[in-house]
Design a protein that fits this description.
Radius of gyration: 16 Å
CATH topology: Peptide Deformylase
CATH architecture: Alpha-Beta Complex
CATH class: Alpha Beta
Number of strands: 7
Shape: globular
Largest sheet: 5 strands, antiparallel
Strand order of the largest sheet: 2-3-4-5-6
Length: 195
């Protein structure tokens, strides 16, 4: 089931997510709905706070990035096959050179900015069957995970840009809060009346 994506300014996007247990109500359904919602919005990742749930859960499917001709065949294959659910994730390490990538977010439509992040991560998490895993990622996969991980920490990519860039996008962010953004997917806006 496709659910609305919570827009910039919604308080849940600023909450640090709570850990959950395997008996979290309707967990399989929540995860399935998140995938439906993400695919409907043509996203590559979605975190529970973006659908109104302040819990430590996010999903990633990097396949849309796999048709980038600037990447090697090996990188394209990695991105094509990467689809995972992360529960109660903990970032253990971020290392390597910082690199810039133009990021966007389903909660902040029509805003894209260059964000610097470390190139390699080590993350511990539980999969959808509550098997514990510790894995290392780099490149675009690491970047998508870092972006979604920020969401469960109450951080948005706009927090990682310069003060000048924040000033330049201030009006766009206000428009999102006021419901004056028109993406081709359903959204819930912070200040819009009759929501």
């Amino acid at each position: 089931m496709i659910t609305p994506i919570y827009g910039y300014g919604e308080p849940v996007l600023r909450k640090v997510g709570e850990e959950i247990t395997p008996d979290y109500p309707n967990l399989k359904e929540v995860i399935a709905n998140m995938y439906d919602t993400m695919y409907n919005a043509y996203g590559v990742g979605l975190a529970a706070p973006q659908v109104g749930l302040a819990i430590r859960l996010f999903i990633v499917d990097t396949e849309p990035f796999s048709d980038n001709d600037e990447l090697s065949k090996e990188e394209q294959l990695q991105l094509k096959g990467f689809k995972k659910t992360f529960i109660n994730a903990k970032m253990l390490k971020e290392e390597g050179e910082e690199w810039s990538f133009n990021e966007g977010c389903l909660s902040i439509p029509d805003v894209r900015e260059d964000v610097f992040r470390k190139e390699k991560i080590t993350i511990e998490y539980f999969d959808e069957d509550f098997n514990k895993k510790t894995e290392v990622y780099d490149g675009l996969i690491a970047r998508v995970i870092q972006h979604e991980y920020d969401h469960i920490e109450g951080v948005l990519f706009t927090d990682r840009i310069s003060t000048l860039k924040k000033t330049l996008i201030k009006k766009k962010l206000q428009n999102i809060m006021d419901g004056k953004a028109f993406p081709d997917y359903r959204m819930k806006f912070a200040n819009k009346k009759g929501r």
